[in-house]
Amino acid sequence: MAGDQTAIDSRQLSTMIGNGSLADASVSLSGQSAGSLVGTLSELPATEQAVAFQLLAKDTAMDVFECLDAGLQKPLVRALHDEEVTEVFSALDPDDRARLVEELPAKVAKRLIADLSPHERTRTAVVLGYPADSVGRFVHEQTVAVHPGDTAAQVIAQLHERAGDATDFETMAVIDARRTVVGLLHPRAVFAAGPGTPVAELSAPPLGAEVTQLATGAARDLLRNRLSALPLVDSERRLVGMLGLTDAALVLDESAAEDAAFAGASSPIRRPYLHTPFLYLARSRIVWLFVPAISAILTVNVLSIFEDTLAKRVELALFIPLLTGVGGNTGSQAEVTVTRALAMGDASPKDLLAVAWKELRTGLLLGLALGLTGLIVA
Fold first, then answer.
1. Least crowded by CB within 10 Å, which of 73, 185, 209, 303?
2. What Gene Ontology molecular-function terms does this entry list (predicted)?
3. Domains in the chain, ordered, with CATH?
């Protein structure tokens, strides 16, 4: 076609993928029409076909997928969560992966996650294009599609029909023809309404989270709004799936365990204690122990500088335990307070300067109060 670049030969594309030259393959695929891409991809083996498909821009990928007949769509979706495909993208440098791998179109992502186990979903997330800590790693398929024009009777019929394979009906997403989330529907509202009442009159305002959002933030949104499931959407607000209450609890449980580990001055081990090698335990703690060790060394150096003064005024040595004890407790208080603020979403890493300024003023005030107390008592 006139608007196309020179059409890439399937053998050239296969060679690029086989050599790991994904950046070159991505450039070669860009600018091609959906029709020519369908012809090229159909000549590739399933694994290489899936890799090439993931290198396409999101809109192009959607057009190509729509052009494929059902006989090619199913093998492509199946190949996308093949271990060999995920290893290709897992081996990429994170910056290259972020540049080359866009999130899959919602329709393709929905098909891809439909039959995945939790373990397969985690492994396949790299192909879906979701970041490591994103809620997209926990997405479940929404098995009941509800539209604004459906009646209460039609929804009830769907609930009866899908009762065996749907995991959660307590919260259902209402979607339009483009799969855009336009509302939330609760079954109790459906059963309380007349059979002919349209869903548009029964649905609540839409809530949801993008699949690239931090999992902890999405989990808190779910609990804050007292939902049993939260719609997960792509960057165009199209429904990909749902975050279930069980997964939300798992996310928050892991987050709490991580915060507890940090509060205890160690890194989270992320595996059962008795199955954790002792070298791993030592590595998770040693970095955190360097901080108080260096602090203690600096304290010794300061004391050595004032050694003559301490020799002349022995009573000053009586305050050393006070300084070290209160200083340690003050640091622990600040650590717990800031860790809790991070865990609850009240602060984030971008607030570093504001947190440092607040803790500096707090520390100065506490130091002044305790210093005056020590002066009066002494």
1. 303
2. monoatomic cation transmembrane transporter activity
3. 10-136 (1.25.60.10), 145-244 (3.10.580.10), 273-377 (no CATH)
